[in-house]
Amino acid sequence: MTRLGITVDYADDFATSASEVVEFERAGADVVAVAEAYSFDAVSRLGYLAAITDRVALLSAILPIYSRTPALLAMTAAGLDSVSGGRFELGLGSSGAQVVEGFHGVPFTAPLGRQREIVEICRSVWRRERLEHAGKNYTIPLPADQGTGLGKPLKLINELVRPSIPIALASLTPKAVEQTAEIADGWLPLFFHPTKSAAAWGDALSAGAAKRSPELGALDVIVTVPFHIGPGADQALEAHRHRMALYVGGMGARDANFYNDLAVRYGYGDEAARVQELYLAGDKAAAAAELPDDLVRDTALIGTESEVRARASDYVAAGVTTLMIAPIAPTREGRIAAVEAARSLL
After folding, report:
1. What is the pLDDT of residue 11?
2. 284 shares its domain with 337
3. In terms of domains, do 248 and 223 share one?
4. Are strands 31-34 and 57-60 parallel, antiparallel or unpaired?
5. How far is CA 338 from CA 1, 13, 29, 328, in A?
6. How many CB atoms lie within 10 A of CB 211?
7. More confident residue, 221 or 256
């Protein structure tokens, strides 16, 4: 059965969002995710939500790998899993150079290598092994010639609620998706197109799955989509169009935009080039207008009930196992109704 989730955005009023999360749980949500950028941290919010919910899984979506040491990520996940009674899922991602170097002040280097080592270190910590790691990006304990020489291997003091905690990785490029399919419990793509995802990622997912340990089980494909049923669908799609234009046209440098590359792999190379050209020239409205209608429509669950039901079935058929919705409704009642409606579709 496909899980239903909802995301608490980092820009939302958290007091309002937290009270709604309790209602979302009652309405049938299975997962609640908390986002983090250069914002309030997600961890404190997840801890609060752990205290006021009973059943839903709690997902970080995502914690950037550069802003915390690997051991701290492992400790944080173990702590959240403890206070939630075994309901935490660790969503990790590299973020981007603009945030990592511009806000955190650390070099944005070797994202794939760092993700692999962090996953290894987290699982070692959770097994309560004495932490010893010698990798290209992290050496633990710190070698004597890099510090005081007093560091020694330590193991986590506390007993964990469960032997391992699910790790989901945000990834878009073929190499990153291949690694995710190999080592992670879950995958967090963005702008997932149910009928074109195989063209963009099929080979990478197959290559990673071939190297995957059977102990990990099946990969949890966690997809987030804007959600709206009924009147106002055109306006909701237009808002989604402009958000997508920002990513396809304006994220990263001209030659380092992973979202633009994804549109190309979906088969929209000419359109993606025009969107980027117009967006970087400052004509955001024209850039949004250049996005193909089917790309905008099929990366969202927006429309009539029958349209949304059919598209939700496409997502499930494409392998999505956790569907995270972002309700566009402006009211509390509308957002709760959106969760109830989405629950009825899955």
Report:
1. 80
2. no
3. no
4. parallel
5. 19, 19, 11, 9
6. 11
7. 221
What total number of domains does the chain contain?
2
Q: Name which of 113, 161, 111, 110 is nearest 133 in CA terms.
A: 113
Contact present, 165 and 126 (Cβ < 8 Å): yes
Phi and psi (nearest 5°) for 225?
-140, 145
Do residue 115 and residue 44 come from a single domain? yes
One DSSP character per residue, 82-132 reads HHTTS-EEEEEE---HHHHHHTS-S----HHHHHHHHHHHHHHHHTT----
The Cα 326–Cα 35 span in angstroms is 12
Q: Are residues 127 and 266 in the same domain?
A: no
What are the tens digits of pLDDT across the range 175-218?
Answer: 999 999 999 999 999 999 999 999 999 999 999 999 999 999 99
What are the structure tokens assigned to 300, written together? 């969202």
CATH number of residue 180's parent domain? 3.20.20.30
Residue 257 shares a structural domain with residue 156:
no
pLDDT digits (tens, 9 = 90+) for 32-56: 999 999 999 999 999 999 999 999 9
Same domain membership, residue 117 and residue 43: yes
